[in-house]
Please model this.
Amino acid sequence: MRKATRTQWIKCSIAILLYLIFLIWVKSWWGLIVVPFIFDVYITKKIPWSFWKKSKNPTVRSVMSWVDAIVFALVAVYFVNIYIFQNYQIPSSSLEKSLLVGDFLYVSKMSYGPRVPNTPLSMPLAQHTLPILNTKSYIEWPQWKYKRVPGFGKVKLNDIVVFNFPAGDTVALNFPDADFYTLAYNIGKQIYPNPINMDSLTREQQKTVYDLYYNAGRKEIMSNPQRYGKVVTRPVDRRENYVKRCVGLPGDTLQIINGQVMIDGKAIENPENLQFNYFVQTTGPYITEEMFRELGISKADQGLTPEGAGYEEGLVELGMDGRNAQGRLNPVYHLPLTKKMYDTLSANKKLISKIVIEPEDYAGDMYPLNLYTHWNRSNYGPIWIPAKGATITLTPDNLPIYERCITAYEGNKLEQKEDGIYINGVKTDQYTFQLDYYWMMGDNRHNSADSRYWGFVPEDHVVGKPIVVWLSLDKDRGWFDGKIRWNRIFYLVGRLSSNEKGI
Model:
């Protein structure tokens, strides 16, 4: 063995020092087993790491050099994605106009502290399924417990946050975008279609009805894999990534009154570009594509209500009763509008005759799905957001709200028996939360699947904070017709759109 040079010792010392700093940061001393290998790479060279370089076959050397480069790149990307940042594309309009469909973001893992992966053995750049092969992108063993290493801060009110979909633990693969639990309840209601007057029932009787719906729907899904697909369960870090705005922090009491979010009885600041859905009837002409572009309404959101008796009756009930000389209803659009868009259309009296906000019965069932309330999208709660270390008294009125936190997120066994509530076999009416929770909502309030539908976001589901838009593509335009939104390149994602520029 040749004696190591001074330069080799210096490089080895720097590499080991940096690696030890990393281990201190992540608080994982198991990583010390790698130190002898680092020492061997630089000093002892007992392991033939680059054996292929000595091959006499040029093909072997060429192929292995590519393999070596690819493996190194994948390992580097893996660690960067876990601990530094990852790329994320906005797939839906739930945060418009703060973030647009087609925005490509850098999501900072350092903002809230990187989360050590639950499933460390996985393919880089794949969330849960390998493309083409259509198989799992990860190995289920080992599965590590939740751990977050120190970062620059914590989630703050009105932060835009990327997180793993809380209700995505169970997925029917033929309906991958559907919340499994909502799917099960809806199927159960189809199986038992007779209307039930829930107001006349006690809480216990109401629970019996909801259990009937869910169990029937779940049985139907599980017994019909050809229709619903295989039902799979996913670890926390292998669930779909969602992006929403945090409007409620641990320990807050949240309520929505006429669309305004209230925290502890006080209205929070709204994003400047908050949107709601409206029905818009014209005086007769159709809204031009040029006007839609000026308003910033994408083709996907340009909903022209079909003609026909089935639609006409409902539109007339909403007051959309303007008719032309032939007695036909004037065109009616279903559009998401900001206040600025609303004011622009309202002022155009020659084109627009009426604008009516979308009724609440257009929305689906609110969280929790197994508690009878009169809550809707615009009038919701009050609801207390769990905080780590806080203890609550469990009652029939709040147990459905918090049972998912207790069981699915914090891993306890909860049973309701005739004589009371049992948690891990112990009778109790008290529970102390082990995690902090958040309430997430979209700025496009009527087109957002958010906490109003599936509840709290646990801290272990938080992925990171969007920092900058590095690319933005308008799917409605061609490459020579403004497809690239140049004004959004390197656009900084602020906490409130009122503080943001370039929208």
